[in-house]
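Recap for those who missed Tuesday's class. We walked through two folding examples back to back. For each one, the amino acid string is listed first and its predicted structure tokens come directly after. Nothing is annotated here on purpose, so try labeling regions yourself before you check the end of the notes.
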Amino acid sequence: MIKTISIKSFKSIENLDLELGRLNVFVGANGSGKSNILEGIGVLSAAADGKVNDQTLLQRGVRPGVPNLYKSAFPVTVGRAPSHIWFSGKADDVRYDVSLNNPLDAPSPAWLYKHELWEDAARKLASRGPNMSNPGNKEAGLAALKAVELLKDDPALQLLRRLQSYVIYTPTTPVLRGVAPETQPRHPLGLSGGGLPDAVEELLNRVKNKKPPFKHIEDILDGVTPLIGWAKNFSVGHATELFLSAAAQTTAKVVAFEDRFMAQGRNLLSGYDASEGALYILFLAVLAAHPQAPSIMAIDNADHGLNPGLAKRLMTAFAQWILADSKSARQFLITSHNPAVLDGLPLQDDRVRLFTVDRDNLGKTYVRRVVVNEQMLKLSEQGWTLSRMWMNKLIGGMPDV
């Protein structure tokens, strides 16, 4: 598991160190730098994979940017501004550090590796710097090349592979419904939510064959407060077999829901007609449970199409799904603007971490982890929820507007 992420001189981030858990939630004002954090890790991911250009960034859900925008442009009173952007990922005794450069006046399609270090407590697996007599192809990552020399269970290789797997999901309703194309397809889900019917079908087949995750399906449909209370069941079928308007462009397969309140025979809804919240619940269930989902991933704006009550219940269930999976130890980074999401977080578990994101009086992004303290416990005893504390500016991440 990745323990620490560091970012320097990237967009609004001058210097940032993050101590990660399994589920990491970031809240803050629009423009505070939440997405910059996610995208900074995306640049680190591309570097660990051996190439940083528009294509490799887009594949990870990162908005490509010219050096003028990627490099921090804060005024410097002493010395000169850094000429490069810098990133690091650490896991126990293993670390991967990289700095990248691209000239402002004549930017090239690919960023150049300036420094690169991949090491553990006993070995320096890859190292390069600008003063080397033969630095090789500066557009190609050295660690990615050296990775072929390590066995698959080597902790150093596991860190690199985990970094390489990172992507940022930003689901959109038209893509989840299947009426808009997925621009960044992946397996099991595209970065905008494309391929949801196939991914859901794979999950249902695992349940049918008595493979995990049973709990996910139970939470969605059963229990005292099911996540999709109006549905009796859900499945995946062919678009031609469902009640779809001819004008509804769709994929070959669609998610189908049985409405528990409507008459039999007229109670079948496709993903095109169902609520976007129901589709988003299935989207999160796939990412939490599918065996081929990335080992570390981000979800930007995790309150997509959810009312406050459902947002809280879904976050509670989502945290349980993640923490119950000890085998893969997947890590999630989530941004949200919905206060109710906070009330679903089991912050007493150190594997779940809440961060507030702000910008200081110089415009620099800074992050503070919210740790339950005596004052918060006293307020909780008086009926204060975590969302109320956030809205009343007691934990940070709330703008003065």
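Example two. Treat it independently of the first, because the proteins are unrelated.
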Amino acid sequence: MTERLWNSNYCKVMTANFTLFFAFYLLTPLLPLYLKENFGATKDVIGMVLSGYTLTALISRPISGYLVDSFPRKKVLLWSFFFFFIFFAGYLTASTILLFTIVRTLHGAPFGSVTVANSTAAIDVLPSSRRNEGIGYYGLSNNLAMAIAPSVGIFIYKYTDSFELLFWLALVIALAGLMIDSTLKYDTPTTRRPDDQTAKQPNNQTTKTKRSLLDRFFLTRGWLLAVNMTFYGLCFGVLSNYLAIYSKEVMGITGGTGTYFIILAVGLIASRLQGSKALRQGKLTQNAAEGTILSTIGYLLFVACPNEFGYYGSALFLGLGNGHIWPAFQNMVISIARHNQRGTANSTLLVSWDVGMGLGVLLGGFISEHYGYTAAFWTVAAAQATGTLLFLCATKEFYVRRKLTS
């Protein structure tokens, strides 16, 4: 008999995840405008203020992965969500740009923590036979929030001209997510369980004594998966940060960025729905391979066809590609981790993506400054192709060798 996928706890963590990302993306497109209008911030200052959030999120993720694996997971989740919620109140009270910078920067830490804790909770409450499929569907809550929230925020601001209302709305939505997660009822695997520490794995020898300090914060067994994901994060980092200016200066497309990301989100949602059967059957490497190839086509189409067809077509291919890559890679990294390392596994994947995104911003800025935006995006296409070859030639076999048997 097939185990039930859509149990009440799974529905709760999905809904909470939607509110988490909705509250985040509701404000994201409007914060630069808020800083400019309220504090007279320049472009350079705006970039510095907003980058602090990413930095603290990056730092907090490996720490939160360790905490999730070392303490009761529900408590870690609720405390992380509480601080994520309460920091929205800080935006309402920050009267100077310095205070706003402090609040925004510190806000990144609970955001990084709660994304790790909530995704780990989703894995815990899924029946083992439906875990691959369930992780794929779980990402839909992110994608829907990304597709809807920015448009909702812009619409509300257009008709109310009130940033304060948006801050209050984000605060209330985050509180709703916290309340939903507080009703979760599940028994989490505890750390240092004998069966977890001696889980069957290639050449395993008393994991308890061989586990390094690094392994508490980074899943060393999954290092090549992390490296591979960094390539994909780098590519998306360049795209997301330099898309608007490239499309305007090179393609002559203005005002199409919103449509681009809507099409990308549609592709993400469609691929997760389409790929659910393959995930349910355990075809993780097949899903990942399809995703990497589709994304490579998307980046090549973007830079090789500098017109509206290439522009919007690439959005669809990239959405379809990333929609396959993410659940496949997340399932793979979870499959090579022990039960008491699920938080660490999740944080490892998220950190590798964040590192790639950061490198993409730096690399894209350097290349575009010295050689132009076209050269920057050809570099992105080459990096994506390299990541695809790495997966097909090395990472795929790397995963198969390390996949745990229990």
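Answers for example two:
Confidence is low (pLDDT under 50) at residues 190-210.
The two ends are 20 Å apart (CA to CA).
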